[in-house]
Write a structure and sequence with these properties.
By secondary structure, the protein is of the alpha/beta class. The chain is built from 19 helices and 15 strands. The chain has two domains: 213 residues, Periplasmic binding protein-like II (D-Maltodextrin-Binding Protein, domain 2); 266 residues, D-Maltodextrin-Binding Protein, domain 2, CATH 3.40.190.10. It has a five-stranded mixed sheet. A four-stranded mixed sheet has the order 8-11-7-12. The longest helix is centred in the last third of the chain and has 25 residues. The termini are close together. Pfam families: SBP_bac_1.
């Protein structure tokens, strides 16, 4: 992997993103307000933590319970004050804090920005020297990557969660039983799924259906991507990291959309699915109005919370032949919690991070909440922390179905400039978007899925090429090859050695 001088590169590369921080000073002056001022005569140090993650929301949240435990343990020495804010409020508050040189000691990257923005602006302090030399060893392999959360060899954050499985088949056991189907045998193939959904719908007599989803948000896209992984996993999500090209018109997407159309034609989809939100779909699933729901890892604890009497199971999303699908993720993340460059209590911040926020004191509570896995494998494997029986299957599905994919940001951090041009790899500037096209095709307003999706794919590939050419013309060393990983073995995790082999 190549090495780069980040402060000069990212000031240019992330110029668009840094509009969020317009007018803010790069470094806090010596007389800046002391956010972590010592109480009394320099005894107890007060550390402020701001974030938009739900795990800090409310006294019973994993984050606030961790803070309370840490404060008790370090009473008289360190006191942490955690503050949760919704995203819009948080983004405004952070911008105001930077402008007034009154940043919290620890802060989360706002929406629309990332770690590299703050490092380039001189607003973040590295963890190195504040945590132990063995601190990184606690996390899953690949959690720290140059150009992502490590800049010029210095560490600025950590992955907040472990692997996240975005596609799970949730099946309602009571609904299956009432339709005369085996509640302990979910469908493994597409044919089994359509047959079981049709049986449930026929016996439901207009009150209970085979399938429900939140089509009013991105439910159609989620459905198609979930099933596409069983046809060609490298095409699921639309961008093929093996070829470095978009593949929305590939066999995986087309076959998956045809499956959705078949379920619709059979009448197996709860009719309001096409306009409702994901939370509404999950509630109806929990209220025994549908047998099947495709949703992410977060839906499990929400169904438990909102419809606690629901009896449901979790399984891999069915595939054409019954084999297991494969999904991909990247362990290092360019967003997360950082240390403010203006903190007055760096040593105490390091103590809190290592012994509280990034350790068992927090992550055991986080896993026990049932929301997601942690980035610490030993905690994930501690069955005594599992909140309910379904969590065993939840853990196993993550282990069985997820692999690490290649990341263009790791291969060449200068691709950040291309992504700024595009808005994201999904190119949100190109309208209509993928979900809009699928919705239009599903409603019958448009026909010929192959032609519609090919036209969309061609626009995206042209957009990527144009963005690369524009950035390259400014003297930046990037190319389309930076987005292609021909040595990617889809059945294995992509490793540091694989990146090296590309040279």
């Amino acid at each position: 992997m190549r090495k780069y001088k980040w402060k000069s590169i990212l000031a240019l590369a992330l110029g668009t993103v840094m509009l969020l921080l317009a007018g803010c000073s790069k470094n806090a002056p010596e007389n800046a307000p002391n956010n972590a001022a010592a109480a009394g005569d320099g005894g107890e140090k007060v550390i402020s933590v701001w974030g938009l993650s739900d795990f800090l929301k409310g006294d019973e949240s994993p984050g606030q319970r961790m803070i309370a435990e840490f404060n008790e343990k370090y009473k008289g020495k360190i006191r942490v004050e955690g503050r949760y804010m919704p995203a819009a409020e948080y983004n405004t508050a952070i911008q105001a804090a930077i402008t007034s040189n009154d940043m919290p000691d620890i802060f989360q990257t706002p929406s629309g920005s990332d770690i590299r923005t703050f490092v380039a602006n001189g607003q973040a302090m590295p963890f190195d020297g504040l945590v132990s030399d063995t601190w990184k060893d606690n996390f899953v392999p690949g959690s720290f990557a140059e150009g992502v959360n490590v800049i010029d060899g210095k560490t600025y954050s950590w992955p907040l969660t472990g692997p996240q499985l975005n596609y799970i088949l949730y099946y309602n056991k009571d609904v299956l039983s009432q339709a005369g189907l085996d509640p302990e045998k979910p469908p493994a193939t597409w044919d089994e799924l359509t047959a079981m959904a049709k049986t449930v719908t026929d016996k439901g007599k207009g009150d209970v259906f085979g399938f429900v989803f939140g089509g009013g948000e991105s439910g159609v896209t989620n459905f198609v991507n979930a099933f596409a992984a069983g046809v060609a996993p490298e095409e699921s999500g639309g961008f093929n990291y093996k070829s470095g090209k978009y593949a929305y018109d590939g066999k995986a997407t087309l076959d998956s959309f045809n499956l959705l159309q078949k379920l619709k034609q059979d009448g197996s989809i709860l009719p309001s699915s096409y306009t409702m939100k994901g939370a509404e779909a999950a509630t109806l699933f929990g209220q025994n109005k549908a047998a099947f729901l495709i949703d992410s890892r977060a839906r499990m604890w929400l169904v438990k919370r909102d419809t606690p009497d629901a009896k449901f199971g979790l399984a891999a999303v069915p595939t054409p032949g019954g084999s297991k699908p494969t999904y991909y993720y990247v362990p290092a993340n360019p967003t997360g919690y950082m240390i403010s460059a203006s903190t007055k209590n760096a040593k105490e911040v390091g103590t809190f991070l290592e012994n509280g926020f990034t350790g068992p004191m927090f992550y055991e509570k986080y896993l026990n909440s049932g929301v997601a896995l942690t980035p610490i494998e030993s905690i994930n494997n501690n069955a005594s922390l599992y909140p309910y029986p379904e969590f065993d299957t939840f853990i196993q599905l993550h282990k069985d179905l997820l692999k690490v994919r290649p990341d263009y940001a790791v291969r060449n951090p200068l691709t950040a400039q291309v992504i700024v041009e595009l808005g994201s790899i999904d190119q949100p500037k190109i309208k209509p978007g993928f979900n809009d096209i699928l919705q239009s095709l599903l409603s019958g307003a448009q026909t010929d899925p192959q032609a519609q999706l090919k036209a969309y794919t061609d626009k995206l590939n042209k957009g990527l090429g144009d963005a690369v050419d524009k950035v390259k013309a400014s003297g930046v060393n990037v190319g389309l090859n930076d987005f292609a990983f021909p040595n990617w073995d889809l059945a294995k995790d992509y490793t540091a050695d694989d990146y090296k082999a590309l040279k």
